[in-house]
Design a protein that fits this description.
- By secondary structure, the protein is mainly alpha-helical.
- Among the domains are: 45 residues, no CATH class; 32 residues, no CATH class.
- 68% of the residues lie in helices and 0% in strands.
- The protein contains seven helices and no strands.
- The longest helix has 33 residues.
- The radius of gyration is 41 Å and the shape is extended.
Length: 177
């Protein structure tokens, strides 16, 4: 015999079970499931009879997000900033012809290199750099004598380093908390 699951019994009590008739038929013939249903009903009745308790601390303050953005600027300040920005744009447009007349005599003397000249100069710099790189030699490392460390000494050193690492991380984490 297949017994009803706790989930099915909870759905039956909440009146959300799709096949309520088959559950009622099973409960009529199965004393074990009927006893479990009665125990659940008693538990829910006892829970409903408990008085509402006020929390000693407000837990919602820790959960609810704090506004990260400051309050909106006053309307007059936003309008003033917008008006100033518009005046700056108008001043730049009005001053542009005078600035072009002022700078234009100096622009004739400035010669911009063509794209071909830029590419040729880049290519010559690149080949010079590659030539320098191909002739570069790393300095020789001095030969060190081989270290003879016993396995016991190696284990003691590893244990010491591990302890220092744990203590250091513990101190770092303690300061952050």
């Amino acid at each position: 015999m297949n017994h009803l699951t706790d989930e099915t019994l909870n759905e039956y009590l909440d009146h959300e079970l799709a096949d309520r008739a088959s559950a009622e038929t099973h409960l009529a013939v199965c004393a074990d499931c009927a006893a479990r249903l009665a125990a659940l009903q008693a538990l829910f009745a006892e829970l409903d009879s408990l008085p509402e308790e006020a929390l000693s601390r407000d837990l919602a303050a820790r959960i609810t997000p704090r506004p990260s953005l400051p309050a909106a600027l006053p309307r007059w300040l936003t309008l003033t900033a917008t008006l100033q920005a518009a005046l700056v744009v108008i001043a730049i447009i009005a001053a542009a012809p005078f600035a072009v007349d002022l700078v234009s005599p100096y622009l004739v003397t400035v010669q911009m290199p063509s794209l071909t000249e830029i590419v040729v100069q880049f290519q010559s710099q690149w080949t010079t750099w590659l030539d320098m790189l191909s002739t570069f030699r790393f300095p020789a490392m001095p030969q060190l004598p081989p270290l003879e460390i016993s396995s016991l000494m190696l284990m003691i050193m590893l244990a010491g380093v591990s302890i220092l690492w744990l203590v250091g991380n513990g101190l770092l984490l303690r300061k952050q908390a």
